[in-house]
């Protein structure tokens, strides 16, 4: 498979590089007479992601699928924060990125965790369609927020649920530190809602996502974690059961503008079997190859896609 990625300055924080000239929305087919009969030959797509490992891996999976179908890719992975990457999608600075149903319902569409529909995915699809954004069928994994402690701390204090943690903090208010990233600290489906649901007060210690896991049991008694993150096991952490069912389901799904999907329906065809193969166990393994084994997200994505027969 040829490496036809077009490298561009990565997006960081709020500074978005303008790549409209390379965007796929115009359907640039001027180079389509080179004899390449692949479905997306001559087209260019700008692929974005959020800043954490799983988002990098998933977006590289999408980029490689499109490349294998003949497209060129402008790399804009690593955008910091949901609001920023979503704004990039809406403003056509990127063409697609992976997000999560819970994030879509609460953080993007402005709903609350208390008005959760029975079919969250369908509700997100219907409501976001009004914004011109399409959500492909979700993959077979769910990456949900969780609260974790070290195995030793859980055993010493008999903690297995978030209610146990709330009771412990009520009796030990000086041991309430929670290592968390900025987005979790400020999201309604993150710390503010969690504290209200469990009637507990955490002392938030804001850290970069990658620093949270080794700091649980050191800088903090508790930590925000993702349920598919291999660093949970690598750092001997125990995930506390969300016994009040506060956290919203977060099924991973590719998002893109509806006009892009209408023009290139093959994008959905390419992703459908891949999404079915992306189970909780698979995603945790891929994340672990990056976070604990130090491999590059693109290499991890390419190895897996090749092994599964999704790309040549």
| Count of the domains | 2
User: How would a textbook summarize the main sheet?
Assistant: 5 strands, mixed
Radius of gyration over all CA atoms, rounded: 20 Å
Using DSSP, what is the number of strands?
Answer: 11
- Structural class per helix/strand content? alpha/beta
Q: In the CATH scheme, what's the topology name of the largest domain?
A: D-Maltodextrin-Binding Protein, domain 2
Fraction in beta strands: 15-25%
How would you describe this structure to a colleague?
By secondary structure, this protein is α/β, with parallel strands linked by helices. It has 2 domains: 197 residues, D-Maltodextrin-Binding Protein, domain 2 (3-Layer(aba) Sandwich); 96 residues, 3-Layer(aba) Sandwich (D-Maltodextrin-Binding Protein, domain 2). The chain contains 14 helices and 11 strands. α3 crosses α4. It is globular and about 70 Å long. The N terminus is likely disordered.
């Amino acid at each position: 498979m040829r490496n036809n990625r077009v490298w561009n300055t990565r997006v960081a924080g709020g500074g978005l590089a303008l790549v409209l000239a390379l965007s796929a929305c115009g359907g640039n087919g001027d180079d389509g007479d080179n004899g390449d009969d692949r479905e997306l030959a001559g087209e260019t797509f700008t692929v974005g992601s959020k800043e954490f490992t799983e988002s990098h891996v998933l977006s590289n999976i999408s980029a490689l699928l499109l490349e294998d179908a003949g497209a060129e890719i402008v790399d804009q992975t690593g955008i910091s924060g949901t609001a920023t990457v979503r704004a990039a999608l809406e403003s056509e600075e990127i063409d697609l990125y992976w997000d999560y149903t819970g994030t879509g319902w609460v953080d993007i569409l402005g709903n609350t965790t208390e008005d959760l529909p029975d079919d969250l995915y369908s509700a997100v699809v219907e409501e976001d369609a009004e914004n011109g954004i399409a959500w492909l069928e979700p993959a077979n994994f769910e990456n949900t927020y969780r609260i974790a402690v070290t195995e030793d701390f859980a055993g010493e204090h008999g903690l297995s649920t978030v209610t146990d943690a709330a009771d412990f903090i009520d009796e030990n208010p000086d041991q309430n530190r929670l290592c968390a990233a900025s987005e979790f600290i400020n999201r309604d489906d993150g710390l503010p809602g969690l504290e209200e649901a469990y009637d507990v007060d955490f002392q938030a210690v804001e850290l970069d996502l990658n620093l949270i896991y080794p700091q649980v049991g050191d800088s903090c008694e508790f930590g925000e974690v993702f349920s598919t993150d291999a660093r949970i096991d690598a750092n001997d952490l125990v995930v506390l059961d969300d016994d009040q069912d506060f956290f919203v389901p977060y099924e991973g799904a590719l998002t893109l503008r509806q006009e892009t999907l209408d023009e290139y329906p093959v994008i959905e065809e390419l992703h459908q079997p891949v999404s079915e193969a992306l189970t909780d166990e698979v995603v945790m393994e891929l994340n672990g190859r990056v976070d604990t084994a130090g491999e590059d997200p693109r290499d991890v994505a390419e190895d897996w896609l090749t092994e599964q027969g999704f790309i040549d």
